[in-house]
Design brief:
With about 220 residues, the chain is of the alpha/beta class. The chain has 9 helices and 6 strands. It has a single domain, classed as P-loop containing nucleotide triphosphate hydrolases (Rossmann fold). Helices cover about 45% and strands about 10% of the residues. A 6-stranded parallel sheet has the order 3-2-4-1-5-6, with helices on both faces. The protein is globular.
Length: about 220
């Protein structure tokens, strides 16, 4: 599964870390492949951790990506999750080509809304299923989504079947836990962020091509 968004700061690395941690906690064998040489956010996060799961590896060559995935499959890895750099790059392209599913995080600001379609086009050109994930979204009020997220849904109405009907809510604790080399689900499995991530996991399982969902969500 590749987490991709051409827009910088869309929430790719955060989402990759949240999901990889959750999968690992559910005892899936997961490898998070950090392909963003410029920043290596996921790798930097892993280097601050005492725990060895999820495994986080970096690679510096797009050519090696499929070899790495093949090797992971050979070793019985359940899930390879690929964090990608922003913008166009050989690495980003290879990561999309290698994936069974493209997960596209997006914040709700206008610039983020406008940028989503660029990544959707890349997924479509590669013939890959994709799921758009609203993230860093302001909290619901009285059960109602924030105006920015409603605008996002209106802008992307033609993509509604590919747009997760949930949200990852903006929470300061997410950045804080990552800065400490932890993940929200490791701090509070019952917490709101963990619950949102579990819901997203279920949706991801539905979006994966049949036969590729190796394990159910908790
Ligand atoms: N749900 C959230 N709640 C609060 N902050 C968030 C959330 N999701 C992302 N952020 C914040 O948004 C910023 C950008 O996130 P992140 O680094 O994951 O984006 P990115 O797409 O990987 O960026 P880049 O394109 O530079 O690699 C970070 O400061 C992160 O903490
Ligand atoms: Mg990143």
């Amino acid at each position: 599964m590749t987490v991709a968004a051409h827009k910088g700061g869309a929430g790719k690395s955060t989402l990759s870390i949240l999901l990889a941690s959750l999968f690992a906690q559910a005892r899936l064998r997961v490898v998070l492949i950090d392909t963003d040489e410029g920043q290596n956010t996921a790798f930097a996060w892993a280097s601050r951790r005492a725990m060895i799961q999820p495994a986080v590896v970096t690679i510096d060559s797009a050519v090696r990506l499929t070899d790495l995935i093949d090797a992971a499959q050979g070793h019985g890895i359940d899930f390879c999750l690929i964090d990608t750099p922003a913008g166009y790059s050989a690495m980003g392209h290879a990561a999309i080509e290698a994936a069974d599913l493209i997960v596209i995080p997006t914040k709700c600001d206008a610039a983020d809304r406008w940028a989503v379609r660029t990544t959707v086009e890349a997924a479509r050109e590669a013939g890959k299923p994709f799921l758009i994930v609203p993230t860093d979204a302001p909290p619901r009020r009285l059960g109602r989504e924030c105006p920015e997220l409603r605008l996002l849904r209106a802008d992307l109405v033609d993509l509604a079947p590919h747009l997760w009907d949930g949200q990852l809510t903006e929470r300061r604790g997410i950045g804080q836990s990552i800065a400490e080399g932890r993940a929200p689900s490791e701090i509070d499995w019952q917490g709101s962020t963990s619950e949102e991530c579990r819901n997203l996991w279920r949706r991801i399982m539905e979006a994966l091509p049949s036969g590729r969902a190796t394990a159910g969500a908790p």
